[in-house]
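Chapter summary example.
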Amino acid sequence: MTSPIPPRVVPTLTEVVHAAPAAAAAVDPLVLSEQLVQRVMQRVGDGLEQRVRELVLQVALEQTRDLAPRLHDELESLVRSLVGDALAAERRA
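The structure predicted for these 93 residues follows.
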């Protein structure tokens, strides 16, 4: 039998790779589950905080828009009353 001809260029190992210890390979599913829950809660918390901030701003703007005409009417009435009272006091004086 003839031996096979080896390739001209043989790749060489340039980095030493160590196998992971057996303890690290056996990961507790409960730990993985808790880590997943923590990551998901962090993402939900970040998104929820931003959305709540936007919602509060939107509701505050809507309330301000609804309140402005009422405030205008009330202030107009108040100023008219105060000016009328002041004029009446001037006439009496």
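To summarize the output: The chain has two helices and no strands.
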